[in-house]
Design brief:
37% of the residues lie in helices and 18% in strands. It is of the alpha+beta class and 718 residues long. It folds into four domains: 15-214, Histidine kinase-like ATPase, C-terminal domain (Heat Shock Protein 90, 2-Layer Sandwich), CATH 3.30.565; 235-443, no CATH class; 450-550, no CATH class; 553-718, Heat Shock Protein 90 (2-Layer Sandwich), CATH 3.30.565.10. The strands form four sheets. Strands 5-4-3-6-2-1-7 form a seven-stranded mixed β-sheet. Strand 18 (630-636) and strand 19 form a beta hairpin. Helix 13 packs antiparallel against helix 14 (471-493), helix 18 packs parallel to helix 19 and helix 19 packs antiparallel against helix 21.
Length: 718
């Protein structure tokens, strides 16, 4: 006999306690949820009052002038846990056209996290009567074992009239927190003040916080407003990023301001820049929507699911001398406290805060990690405050908040957002490098650090080959690559030019290794393509052999220097469809000999070629297929005070002045080290030559070469 019984699934009434405790992470976030409800209700003002917290019989009152709730909304939405009222579609408010911040249907459980007793009064706009209900959670839960047996009395009364004729008032009593300290209250106030974007100049949602106790009011007043001291920060950056309607590249508008108030500094060429029609350079290896590392600019497709980002960054130099000059004598403690309490990049949607991004324990952009890797070129989290603002209507279905309201689910959209904002922040850092060094020179206690890191790409490759069961097939060649790689590292570490040479060599090796690791990461990798890539890497390492040898000085032909430097990059010319002009090969110019280290000179020229390839290929991405990138490498025996190798291109030209680009760590390339031209200049000085920044007219170049023009000028040999 087959006896089947059917039973209903039930939920214990105790689940309300569990949900209130588990889904709402803290008192601050619980209060934040209630304030968000006021925002969704089109309130222009919400007041939070802390009453008698120190007397043991405290209450918290949240009152707004929003639209209020009709009785049927109270019944069918507010009293329904997990309702899809706000999830059925994107809710846009009727008056202020706000996109709803709440969508889980569990926000009302915030009141249970805070208090055992709640009094709710609400009146909808245009009605004579309101609704009034009171809930004691302990009594309610005890009244029935199952949640479907719980009931609440709702009174319809005219005694709930609000001053504006509409609104919602919540009184929380029998608070679950029994010991209220200054730290706890200040934390709540700080959270509430940070609900709104502190960098937004809109004033359509006012949050007022008060108390009937003088000590608590004093604590509330002690919390600094995030608006304070922002305008006096040394480094300021604002931006907007959105899809372009003209081409495939995202439109990037930005402004940078160097603000050395009251500091006697020399004027810099980079201070107070802005561009309304620019493109965002980005490192593509971390972008989910594209694995094309050779692309230079953010594309429209990379903003899918995000669509629009705007933001502001403010960074400080927390050196006592600088603080006193900037903010006045005796301000050190005040400024450091402000920066410490407000440090971090916060995220907002429709100017309303998404926690916990930008909190003291959160570093979602990895600013401190980057600072540790390359201290000279990065702002630490503790010296920067800022905001990222997104449109809720664009991101409500892609950037999904965790149920506990502590950040977004880390899906592909959030990962892309992180990489994009990191790229924007790094762009800001690169713009500010020169100004930071002026500040450091003024303070006389900070020096630039030339710290070079080593990649684990080889180990990563071995791991991926093992996962693909290709370990044995590639064991021999990988072993040789690793041997050459390690040997090169050891040799360079013992050389006087270690840092510079390592930067140059490892840049090229890591590029190829990155391509290999990208190919092998694909779901269906082509083994033959990987073999070709690894063989190319072996060839590349062999071409760098001169740089691993002792830098002996000898006579060497300019043609040999050019040929060897070009061989390192020859595949990139084809990849980017770059026209390469070599008049020396066609006999239109003369060869010559120089005295120097072949390895160092080849490395110097390779750096120049690398820069030229980057900027002409980037210009093609900016303009489109109508642009034909071109690079000319020639010799010149007539126009300078010595024989010269001239490299010219039709790219964007130098975006930094010559005196800047030959300094270390100056670059506008994403993830660039900024030591390339510093290395070139140093090599030329070592052999008694010079690096010149020239115009096309200086070397009688064709008019088409209107981008960057450089000349390596050598001493004449007798």
């Amino acid at each position: 006999m087959n006896d089947i019984s059917t039973y209903n699934i039930k939920a214990s009434s105790h689940i309300i306690t569990l949900l209130g405790d588990e889904l709402i992470g803290s008192n601050s976030l619980a209060l934040f949820e209630l304030v968000k409800n006021s925002y969704d209700a089109d309130a222009s003002k919400v007041s939070i009052t802390f009453n008698n917290l120190l007397n043991g019989d405290g209450s918290i009152i949240i009152e707004d002038n929003g639209q209020g709730m009709l009785p049927e909304i109270v019944k069918n939405a507010w009293l329904v846990i997990g309702t899809d009222y706000k999830r059925k579609e994107i809710k846009v408010s009727s008056h202020k056209k706000r996109t709803s911040l709440g969508n889980k249907g569990v926000g009302r459980l915030a009141v249970h996290h805070l208090a055992n007793s709640i009094l709710l009064e609400t009146q909808s706009e245009g009605t004579m009567f309101g609704s009034r209900l009171k809930i004691n959670w302990n009594d309610l839960i005890k009244s029935n074992n199952f949640i479907d047996g719980l009931s609440v009395n709702v009174n319809n009364t005219a005694n709930t009239r609000f001053r504006d004729g509409h609104g919602t008032k919540i009184v929380l009593s029998e608070l679950r927190e029994k010991r209220w300290t200054k730290a706890k209250i200040c934390e709540m106030v700080d959270k509430l003040q940070n609900i709104k974007n502190p960098f937004s100049h809109t004033d359509d949602f006012i949050i007022e916080i008060s108390s009937n106790e003088s000590k608590v009011k004093e604590w509330i007043d002690s919390v600094k407003s995030p608006f304070d001291l922002i305008t006096s920060s040394l480094f300021q950056f604002k931006f907007k990023l959105h899809k372009s309607k003209i081409n495939d590249n995202c439109k990037f508008s930005w402004s940078y301001k160097f603000n050395p108030t009251n500091i006697p500094l020399i004027k810099t060429s980079l201070a107070n820049q802005e561009k309304s029609d620019d493109f965002l350079p980005i490192n593509y290896k971390d972008i989910i929507s594209s694995l094309t590392e050779e692309r230079k600019l953010l594309k429209n497709e990379d903003l899918n699911g995000i669509e629009y980002i705007e933001g502001e960054f403010y960074s400080y130099i927390l050196d006592s001398k600088i603080i006193n000059y900037t903010f006045g004598s005796g301000s050190i403690g005040r400024v450091k406290d402000f920066v410490s309490s407000n440090a971090g990049i916060k995220i907002f949607r429709d100017n309303m805060r998404v926690f916990n991004y930008g909190e003291p324990t959160d570093d979602w952009l990895g600013l401190d990690q980057q600072k540790m890797k390359r201290a000279a070129s990065h702002f630490a989290k503790g010296q920067t405050t800022g905001a990222i603002n997104l449109r809720l209507s664009d991101t409500s279905k892609t950037l999904l908040e965790k149920t506990n309201r502590e950040g977004f689910i880390e899906n592909d959209y959030f990962n892309n957002l992180t990489v994009i904002v990191q790229s924007i922040f790094n762009f800001f850092e690169r713009l500010s490098i020169s100004d930071r060094e002026i500040i450091k020179a003024f303070s006389n206690n900070i020096t630039l650090q030339k710290k070079i890191g080593f990649s684990e790409s080889i180990n990563e490759l071995e791991s991926k080959l093992k996962k693909k069961n290709l370990e044995n097939e590639f064991a021999g060649v990988v072993k040789k690559v690793k041997h050459d790689y390690d040997n090169m590292r050891d040799v360079m570490l013992n050389s006087g030019m270690s840092g510079l040479n390592l930067t140059l060599i490892f840049h090229e090796v890591e590029r190829e290794m990155g391509f290999i690791n990208t190919d092998i990461s694909k779901r269906y990798c082509n083994v033959e393509n990987i073999k070709m890539r690894i063989k190319g890497l072996m060839d590349l390492l062999e071409k760098f052999t001169p740089l691993m040898k002792k830098n002996t000085t000898s006579r060497i032909k300019a043609s040999a220097i050019i040929e060897h430097a070009l061989s390192i990059h020859i595949n990139r010319f084809s990849f980017h469809d770059i026209i390469l002009s070599e008049p020396l090969k066609s006999g239109d110019t003369w060869d010559f000999e120089v005295m120097g280290s072949g390895g160092l000179l080849m490395g110097a020229l390779s750096n120049i070629i690398d820069n030229a390839i980057y900027w002409v290929s980037r210009k093609k991405e900016e303009i489109g297929n109508n642009f034909q990138p071109a690079i000319r490498i020639t010799t010149d025996l007539e126009n300078f005070d010595g024989p010269a190798i001239v490299v010219a291109d039709n790219g964007s030209g130098f975006q930094l002045p010559p005196e800047e680009v030959i300094m270390p760590f100056r670059t506008l390339k994403p993830n660039g080290m900024g030591v390339g031209l510093y290395y070139v200049n140093l090599v030329m000085e070592m052999i008694g030559g010079k690096l010149l920044f020239i115009n096309k007219e200086d070397a009688n170049l064709p008019d088409s070469y209107c981008g960057a023009c450089l000349a390596l000028v050598f001493k004449s040999l007798k």
